[in-house]
Amino acid sequence: MANVMNMKKFSERAGLSAHTLRYYEKIGLLNNVQRNISGHRDYTSRDLDWINFVIRLKDTGMPLSNILEYAKLRALGSDTVKERQKLLEQHRECLKSHIELQQNHLAALEDKIGLYELNKVS
C-alpha cells in the first residue's frame, strides 16, 4: 500500500487533531479507514485528499449536515454524481452571497477608516 500514514502523521498533514479525525470517522464523514495488523488506523493519500475537501467545505461555511449528505452520496458511488453536483452548486450560490455581503461590510469599514484618517469624525 503506497503512502500509508499513521494517525499522528495524518493528523499533522490534515491539520486536524486525532480526536477530530476519530469523530469524523464516528459520524460517517471519514469512511473505510484501513487498519493494520495491530488495529491502528492506516490513512492513505486518498483519505487526505478527501479530508482536505471536507475542510474546504467547512471553511467556506457549508453546514456539517450538508457535508455529511455529500459524504453519504459519495459513498454510494457514481450514480450520485448529479446529486453531489447539485449540493455543491447550491453551496456555491450561498458562498457567493456571503462573499458579496462581506465585501459590502469591508467597503463600509474602509469608508469609516477613511473618515478617521481625514479626522472628519470625532
TrEMBL record:
Keywords: DNA-binding. Coiled coil: none annotated. GO terms for molecular function: DNA binding; DNA-binding transcription factor activity. It holds the Pfam family MerR_1. It comes from the Bacteria. PROSITE patterns: HTH_MERR_2. Residues 4-73 form the HTH merR-type domain. The keyword DNA-binding applies. This is Transcriptional regulator, MerR family.
